UniProtKB/TrEMBL annotation:
PANTHER family: ARGININE DEIMINASE (PTHR47271)
Pfam families: DDAH_eukar
Listed name of the protein: N-dimethylarginine dimethylaminohydrolase
Gene Ontology terms describing biological process: L-arginine deiminase pathway
Organism expressing this protein natively: Mycolicibacterium rhodesiae (strain NBB3) (Mycobacterium rhodesiae)
Length: 281
């Protein structure tokens, strides 16, 4: 990096501002890979729940050290994927939508997260069509980017738009390794994103670049580490530690990357964002 590059990065960093966030998380107390519903899951590979708990706790403490509020949702026995809290629903614009899962193995998670939302004062809405929460529904400023192709059904997008009273931009996913939008796209602030172009149809790629002409495009190496399954507060970007190239791109763009190792939870097909349900205002 040249002196000019450093100066540019420092100027960009000075205008990046963090905002306190509100997250809900569920400890991986019962985490296991008991079935395979995405390409990352292999039931023949052992899972160390103790390691998973330690990595998850590091993520929780990272959020707290950054000044964010973290509330806990009680894990439920028999729901090994409940640690992936982002899939539990969508909370934005003072509205809450419960997830409707594609696979019966995860159906019980919807009730658990809906109960938590109800206890927090939300009148929880449901969709007729499949929606897998913030796995496929990412808030960017005043709009929602919504994925479809593997889990959330395209028809659910109109339902979501009507419930939360926000415009929804539909994006089609084409690579089964990136089965949720949050595995192929990261929201960095209200106007900035990063994404992996090969995970999308040409039409969706064009749409993203029209909306976000300065979007960061990550390499395959970082995408395959689920590097885009990241969480940003507008300045600090918590991302999988293995995504070193993406971390450099973030630094160059004025963000502060913070790597966290969630390799044990990656065995279930999830990482930082999957473990984090953001409670948007």
């Amino acid at each position: 990096m040249t002196i000019s590059d450093v100066a540019t990065a420092e100027r960009a960093s000075s205008i990046r501002t963090s905002r306190p966030r509100h997250y809900a998380m569920t400890a991986p107390t019962f985490f296991a890979v008991e079935y395979a519903i995405n390409p990352w899951m292999d039931t023949s590979v052992p899972v160390d729940t103790h390691v998973a708990l330690g990595q998850w706790e590091t993520l929780r403490q990272t959020y707290k050290e950054l000044g964010h509020t973290v509330e806990l949702v009680e894990p439920v026995t028999g729901l090994p994927d409940m640690v992936y809290a982002a899939n539990g629903g969508l909370i934005v614009n003072d509205k809450a939508v419960a997830a409707r899962f594609a696979y019966p193995q995860r159906a019980g998670e919807s009730a658990a997260y809906a109960e938590w939302m109800t206890r927090h004062g939300y009148d929880v809405a449901e969709t007729r069509h499949i929606n897998e929460g913030q796995g496929d529904l990412l808030v960017v400023g005043a709009i929602i980017l919504a994925g479809h192709g593997f889990r959330t059904q395209h028809q659910a997008h109109d339902e979501i738009a009507a419930i939360v009273e926000m415009p929804v931009v539909s994006l089609e996913l084409v690579d089964p390794r990136f089965y949720h939008l949050d595995t192929a796209l990261a929201v960095l602030d209200d106007t900035a994103i990063a994404f992996y172009p090969p995970a999308f149809t040409e039409r969706s790629r064009t749409k993203l670049l029209e909306l976000f002409p300065d979007a960061i495009e990550v390499t395959s190496a970082d995408a395959y580490a689920l590097g885009l399954n990241a969480v940003s507060d507008g300045r600090n970007v918590v991302l999988p530690a293995a995504a070193t190239g993406f971390a450099e791109q973030l630094s160059d763009a004025g963000f502060r990357p913070i790597g966290v190792d969630l390799s044990e939870l990656l065995k279930g097909g999830g990482s930082i964002k999957c473990c984090t349900l953001e409670v948007h205002p």
